[in-house]
Each structure stands twice: as C-alpha cells, then as structure tokens.
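Subject: two folds for Thursday's group meeting

Dear M.,

Sorry for the delay on this. The cluster queue was jammed most of the week, so I only got both jobs back this morning. I'm pasting them in the order they finished. Each block is the input sequence followed by the predicted structure tokens. Could you check whether the formatting survives your parser before we put anything on slides? The first protein is the one we discussed after the seminar.
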Amino acid sequence: MATDRYQSPLSERYASKEMQYIFSPDMKFRTWRRLWIALAETEQALGLPITDEQIAELKAHQDDINYDVAKEREKLVRHDVMSHVYAYGVQCPLAKGIIHLGATSCYVGDNTDIIIMKTALELVRSKLVNVIAELAGFADRYKDLPTLAFTHFQPAQPTTVGKRATLWMQEFLMDLDDLNYVLGSLKLLGSKGTTGTQASFLELFGGDYDKVAQLDPMIAEKMGFAGCYPVSGQTYSRKVDTRVVNVLAGIAASAHKFSNDIRLLQHLKEVEEPFEKNQIGSSAMAYKRNPMRSERIASLSRYVMVDALNPAITSAVQWFERTLDDSANKRLSIAEGFLAVDGILDLCMNVVDGLVVYPKVIEKRLRSELPFMATENIMMDAVKAGGDRQELHERIRQLSMEAGRNVKEKGLDNNLLELIAADESFGLSLEQLQQTMDPSRYTGCASWQVERFLRETVEPALQPYKDQLGMKAEILV
C-alpha cells in the first residue's frame, strides 16, 4: 500500500473486492474491447469488409490490456479512448484499421458505464436480499417476544422484537422493488454517432437505413441487453445515472434508519450489535461497547444520500447533444456511490447476523411501564364490576400522575398498581391487578402480523433469489 498519497477509504476500508473489481480499470477496458469486438462482428454481419482473421485477432487480445502503451499514448494525444484504440491496434496489426469503425468515444465510454452499473446493481441486489433474509430469520425468532414500543422515543403500547424488525424489512423490500424496476429499464446507448444521428453509420452502409436500424439491436444482444435507448444525443441521457443513484440513496436511507434503531436499542441495553472478543470500544473507557458498525452504516449512508445530488444536477445542466462537464463528476459519484452502498450492505449483513437480544432487560423495561399501558384494561374490568367509566377514568388519570411523579421526582419504582388497589372505587385487589400484567396481552396482532408478513410478502420476494442467499460478510475494520 502506498503511504505517500491519498487512498480512498472506500477501497481500503469499506467496499468488497467484488465491487472494487466492477469499477476497476480491468473491468472498464476489457469491456471497451468487448464492445469493439461486438461492433466489428455486427458491421461484418451487415456487409462491411471485415475479415474473420481480424475479429479473431481482436478476441485473442481482449483481456491482456497493454496499459503501458495506452498510458504513453495518452500523454501525447490527451484522449483516453484514442489512446486505447492505438494500444489495441499495436497488439492487433491486422485489425488495426477497423477498430472503433464509425464510432465516437461514447460508444465505448457510455455503453461501458451502463454495463458496469448493471453489473454493480446485480451485486447490490444480491447483498440486499441477503440482508432481508437475515432480518426475516431474526423477525421469526423474536416474533413473540414483547418489547416496549416507542413513539417520539417515549414509551407507547408494546410491540414485539420481531414485529419491529418487519419495519426495517419493509423499507428494504421497497428498495428491492425500486432496484428491480431501474435494473429492468436499463438499456445500452448503442452506436449513435457524434450527435445521436448515426450519420457515420449511414455513410458506412451506403445510405441503407435498414442496416443502420439493425446495428443497435445486434450490438445489444451481443452485450446481453434487451435493447438500446431509441434516441440520444452523443451520450445516453444522464437522467439514467440519476435513477440509478437514487436507488442507492434509498437503500442508504433504509440502512440509516435501521442503524439508528440499533444504536438506540444498544443504549437501552436491549439489543446489541456484534462485539468481538478483542474489540476495543474506547481508548479511554475500557468498559465501553460502542455500536461501531451501526455508526459506520449511518456515516456511509449520509454520504450516499447526499451523493444522489451529483447525477441529478449533472443531468439538469447538460447542454443540447452533449457537454463534457459530466465526466469528472460521474467518475466519482457513480463509482463511490456503489462502493459505499456495498460497504453499507456488508455492514448490515454483519450486524443482523450477529445481533444479540437481552430478553431480561427488555422485560424489565416493559414491566416498568406496563401499568400505565394496562390502565385501559383495568378500567374496563372495574366498569364490568359496576364502576362508573367517567369517574374511573379521572381517578386513573390522577393516580397515573402521582405514580409518574414518584418515578421521575423521587426515583422510585412505578407503584401505579398499588395506588389503584388502594382506591376503593376500583374494587380490585393488587393480586387481581398483577394478573393483568402479562405483556403478551398488550402486543395486539404483532406476532400474527410477523407470520403473515413473512409468508405473504417476504418469502415470495426472496424466492427468485434463493440461490443467492446464505452470503456472509466480513468487515475490514
């Protein structure tokens, strides 16, 4: 590792080797060469004088990129595509004259960008469905475990630990829907020429519109796409990048919400992210178990959500058929958005896979608040025994305030049940009141909702990806 220059933390610390390869020079320039081969084969099939020997020569050197030759040539001509055309020609003297025939730089540049984004989205999808699957297992294990729910981070009616996990899952499932929609809509630029009119190809094919019409579909099929965008300027619309990175930002937002909840639960000591045997939580406070992974999810997620502005603004300011103020921004915003989301999903997999639940802590906190939540049931029982609903409501309100003051001002335990038992208007003994304190009585349909959600929503959503499940993620730092 070079220690005298900047290294991107996305590569050094966060993103997987698989995602790093997708945005590597090897992936980029090997794809350029595949596109040049596809163009040559298509032009040959449509009648241009290109020989089998020339195509065979191109294929023989498809993967062994002579980077040194291209780098030296770029110093001279200041053009990356023409430098690689030259370098490929050095290796392929027979085919030298037909490489990039009729094409503009965006033929390789833009088509490769689409291919790379498609490949990267497929990797993101694999990791996303594994996060959902891990959460599904967690939700199923804890679907019946009552826990205190919060609104405004204030105690509210109980839910279950598993039901809370379905809320995280549902957002990731929305992201999966968005990802699949955008992935299914991706098309190649094709070979449109310098302003999108295909004028150079109309010239090459002697004015034969039918042959020009066949060019893009044939190239798309060779590259594994259903088709090409029907019209373009020199580039594919930069709105495509906006749609792709918005999907990444959506995943980041879902992951951020999940990580926030885990951090808050870890503060409450109810649920804890994995903590390794030799992990150090603080350089000063040796006892600390900081939620480092969840904090990193939040940190990277904020970067991706803000990164979505880059392609949106770039798309908005493109002039006519093309400008070049997109290029430098795209190199950063697209690649680093994907690398960051890759790291985020690895962290999510790692956290969910190792989540530790502390039922005793959960029960203790729930029981400390349960008397307040049970007051509706207590009031109904008292009414059935002959009490006046309005009078009982007022008495419960007063006693609840008194119990709240005991907890907040005096630091005492919640004694609401004792106060109610001592009030003759309720006609209920402390023993009778305590029998109402089963937490499962107050979780409503939570367990049933989890079972139904997993059966009717999650399992069908994961079914197409069952062969991709079981992925495990290791975090680098």
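Second protein, same layout:
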Amino acid sequence: MERENEDRTDNIERKVLQYIQSHKLLISGERVLAGVSGGADSICLLFMLIRLREQWEGKLGIEVFHLHHMIRGHEADQDMQYVEMLCRKLELPFHGVHCPVEQLASQQGLSVEEAGRMARYQEAERICREQKLDKIAVAHHQDDQAETILMNLFRGSGIRGMAGMQPIAGNKIRPLLVLSRKEIEYYLSERGIAFRTDSTNQDSTYTRNRIRNELLPYLEKNINAQAAGHIIQFGSYARQIDCYFQKKANILFEKFGRIDGNRVILCLESFYEEEIELFYLIRSCLERLGLGMKDIGNIHMEQIKALIQGRTGRQIDLNGQITVEKSYQDIIFRPKTLEKVCIASQEIQITDEHPSCLVTFLGAELAFTVKNRKKNQTFPKKKYTKWFDYDKIKFTLQVRTRKSGDFIVINTAGGRKKLKDYFIDCKVPRQERDQTILLADGSEIIWMIGKRINEAYKVEDGTSRILEVVCRGEAFTEE
C-alpha cells in the first residue's frame, strides 16, 4: 500500500513537470516568481517548482510573493508568517506586501474578489520588474478552471470566455491546471507538507465560493459525478472553436476589410456572412483599434449590425471610446477622440514553435521574427525596420500607445528618460504623442515607431538571438 501511494505521488509530480515542459511554461535558466498564499494550491505549486529545479540541476531561479489583504486580522498575519518562515527554511527570497484590499475595492467600485485579484497581479508585476524575473507562477488548478468557465457562462461570456484560463498568458503561467484539488491535497498529505486554510473560502457571499462549495458539489452528486471534468473538457473544445473562428476572421478581414490611418473599414457586403463569423470579424476590427471585447456587450454588436439598415452618415458610440459610422459602401470604426481614447495594448505571442507574429495596430502592420544571429551579420539603418537583442526582453512584448510610467534608455551608460519628458524635449505635438505606436517591454519602451530605439536593447557582439521588427503601412514607408 505504501508503495502504491509513493507511485501515485510520483505520478502527480511527473504529470505537472511534463505539463510545464510540454507547454514551455518555463525554460531552464529562467527565474520565476511564485504567488504563495499559504494554502494547499500555492504550497503545492511551490514544491513542484522546487522539484523542477532539482530536475534541472538548479537551473531555475525561484522567488516567492505573498500579498497580505489586510482583511482577516491575526489569521492573515499567521499566513504571511508561515510563508515567510517556509521561505527561510527553503532558502528562497521572500517578497511580502500589505494591501488594504477592502479599501481599494470601495475606492474603485470593485468587488473584494476583483480588487484582490487586481492587487495581486499588480504587485507581482512590480516585483518582477524590480527583480528582473521572467515569469509569474500562479496556482490555478482544474477545479478553478471549472469554476471560471461556469462564472463566465453565467456572466454571458462568448466562446472565448468558455475556453477558461490558458496555461500561459503573457508572463503568467499556471503549472497546476493539469491537477485536481483532490490530487493536490493527496500529494501534500503523502509528502507531509503543511499548508494554511483560509476561512474566507467557506464564505458564500463570494460568488466563486458559492460555485465551489454549493453548485459544483450539487452537480456532481445529483447530475453527474464527472460534471467538473466535463466542464473542463468543454472549455478545451471552446478554445479550439475560438481559435478556428479567429483565423476565419483574419481571412474575412483580408477579403472585406482595410485600414486607413486610424480607421478600420469593413465593406457592407461583409454583413451578409454567417452570424458567428460576422461576430468574430467585428471583434477583429475592434481589436485592431486596441479595444477588447470586455468593453463591448451584445447590445453593442446588435447596434453595429443595425447600421447596415440605417441611413448613410448614421453613427453609434461604443462606451465613449469608438465611433462606428455607416458610409455609402462601408462601416467605419475609429477612435472617438484621439486625444482621450485609451488604446489597449496587444501582446506579441512568440514561441520557439512559432517564432514569427503579425500584429495590426492603429494603421500599422508589424511583423515580428526571432532569428539566430549570423556570423558577421550587419544591420542597415532603416526607419521602419529595426533589430533588437531578443534575450534582453524581460516581460511579454506589447504594441501599444503611451501610459503613465513609460521610460526609455537614451544612452549606453543606462541613462533613462521619461517618455513624457522625451516628447516635451523633442516638441512632439500632444495629438501625435497619443498616436505614437510603441513597442514596449513592461514600462520600458523598446522602440517609438518612426522615432528612436532603446539603447539597452541594441544588438551587441554577444547577441545570439535577434528580434526583427518590420513596420508597414501607408504612413510607414522606408525613405
């Protein structure tokens, strides 16, 4: 019996480590920040990362982050003390942060759950930047995945919401998505690893807790014992469907769409496509303007489709950000006020399997390609084609417009300048500042398209991998 238990715990370890490596969540030599609350899930995550480090002969840097939500008084103090003590025992760097989450929720009109989640990610990102870490590991598992899919369903999410959480999203990774909560608790019990229990997990005033503690157990007891597994399986199907229709939307945009400056244009003929294809095509147009579907509901989609029946010149407003107008032969999407609209970022997804990526943003088409540097390779001076040291990138690359805190390194000595100050010194008009397309690594600007590049990311003698970025479009032609 003891041997069987040992085999089962070994199998659980193997399952997680294989999942990490098959999805390339971590690469030997990287440094990861593990979010550890002290509960079973995050403690399991930490010990799985330590096991991976052993397998990689120490070639994985591990640091620990804990957020004290300042809600549960002495109990929360003990959670932080436990995690800090464990880190001392394991000789791991510990980053403990206090945050008044309830106050934050009240100030920003959020639920306590949402405010806590936002605070955790913001603080983790800050620590990652300061410590120059590569990834943030969080402890979501299969049961969390089932809860997330159900929550998205009840909120009226589309297919993308039904896909649930991804193994990797930007610099955030979820190594435990392959395990159930029962497997996690079994593993910790057999390994004799202690963990803390958060009393608020039983508080059914939180939506997720009601789903976890009441709805899912009811479904498994009264409907189907495999309900959670089937929900997760459905999420996998939804992810494949979403991917298919995203590709379909790109094909349809090539046929029916075009970009003119800061406008995205669809010819009216496109509105006779199948309903689901049109939905994805419209979403593709909005994303090309940097607006995520989180800001758009079904009522907005119906308003957009109704434009085809309206008179020429009719306009609708989408959440104060995008104006959609019917012209003689087209539907035109454009930022409502360039000076005020906040353009969201687009992440650049480059992996070893897919070393190239194409992004369309505010009238520009940017092609990204990672290549091995050739011996004696030289780089000509071009305005809209640049080359960077790919291995110097710390976070997930983004194409976006400016935001508070942006900076750029302006000399080889590492001298920084705030982007705002750079624009002022160079007498760049305010409207042009808001329209300047930026390639960013966190808050550090790698390239102001058409202007200057960051000195710290230049290709040097020791550079082994190069990121080539080519910007194309009517306003972006080489001189």
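Two things I noticed about the second structure. Residues 338-343 have pLDDT under 50 and may be disordered. The first strand starts at residue 31 and ends at 35.

Cheers,
T.
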